[in-house]
């Protein structure tokens, strides 16, 4: 099938989003800042802006897939360098980086891709990095009841890089640990070593 207009494209947007209203608001916002959108290159810019924010705020639903831990696997499972793309709730500017997520299984193991999906689920909303980190850890604790969870997020906040203090390249690290990953010094050290080998 050939797509003829952008209306044919299925857009990522949060549930209930009104893209026409967002486009009008973006046009008014830019006009108030003295940015004209009347050239061939910019006449659709308010629409693009609305669609860009809608996409950055659109969570993707997913099925939680767990498997019985039949082999009794009892070592850490760690997925490193999961991309993080979120928006800081103060400036609505992106913060981007990586998350390292691990858990110590008990009765069930989790489909590995779900560790990346849960990061995305909590990232696609106005956030602070500390809350994002904690929410991923709490979700894993609640859904999987493992013997421990570790989440480390490393991100650059564009509101700190492109404006204000303009600290380009500054990276913020946050962590949320629970169960044995928090309380057992050996497991904690093993998780942190797996995060930064
Ligand atoms: N703790 C935390 N702070 C964040 C995060 N993202 C952005 N911020 C900070 O939120 C703060 C908002 O502070 P304000 O003083 O109200 O905003 P501002 O005047 O724009 O601050 P400056 O960026 O210092 O110019 C800033 O210090 C940001 O760096 C985050 O994920 N966690
Ligand atoms: Zn900010």
Automatic annotation (TrEMBL):
It comes from the Bacteria. Homopolymer. Zn(2+) binds at residues 88, 91, 159. Keywords: GTP-binding, Hydrolase, Metal-binding, Nucleotide-binding, One-carbon metabolism, Zinc. It catalyses: GTP + H2O = 7,8-dihydroneopterin 3'-triphosphate + formate + H(+). Pathway: Cofactor biosynthesis; 7,8-dihydroneopterin triphosphate biosynthesis; 7,8-dihydroneopterin triphosphate from GTP: step 1/1. InterPro entries: GTP-CH-I_C/QueF, GTP_CycHdrlase_I, GTP_CycHdrlase_I_CS, GTP_CycHdrlase_I_dom. GO terms for biological process: one-carbon metabolic process; tetrahydrobiopterin biosynthetic process; tetrahydrofolate biosynthetic process. Belongs to the GTP cyclohydrolase I family. GO terms for cellular component: cytoplasm. The gene is folE_1. It comes from Cellulomonas biazotea. Residues 23-195 form the GTP cyclohydrolase I domain. Pfam families: GTP_cyclohydroI. This is GTP cyclohydrolase 1. Its EC number is 3.5.4.16. One of its GO terms (molecular function) is zinc ion binding.
């Amino acid at each position: 099938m050939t797509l003829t207009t952008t209306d044919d494209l299925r857009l990522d947007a949060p549930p209930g989003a009104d893209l026409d209203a967002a486009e009008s608001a973006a046009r008014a916002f830019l006009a108030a800042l003295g940015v004209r959108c009347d050239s061939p290159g910019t006449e659709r810019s308010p629409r693009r802006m609305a669609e860009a924010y809608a996409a950055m705020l659109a969570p993707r639903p997913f099925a939680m897939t767990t498997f019985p831990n039949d082999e009794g696997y009892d070592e850490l499972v760690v997925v490193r360098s999961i991309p993080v793309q979120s928006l800081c709730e103060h400036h609505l500017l992106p913060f981007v980086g990586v998350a390292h997520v691990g858990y110590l299984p008990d009765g069930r193991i989790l489909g590995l891709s779900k560790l990346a999906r849960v990061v995305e689920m909590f990232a696609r909303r106005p956030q602070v990095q500390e809350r994002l980190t904690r929410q991923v850890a709490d979700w894993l604790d609640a859904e999987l009841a493992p013997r421990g969870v570790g989440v480390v997020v490393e991100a650059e906040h564009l509101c700190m890089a492109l404006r204000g203090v303009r600290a380009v390249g500054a990276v913020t690290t946050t962590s949320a640990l629970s169960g044995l990953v928090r309380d057992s010094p050996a497991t904690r050290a093993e998780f942190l070593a797996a995060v930064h080998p």
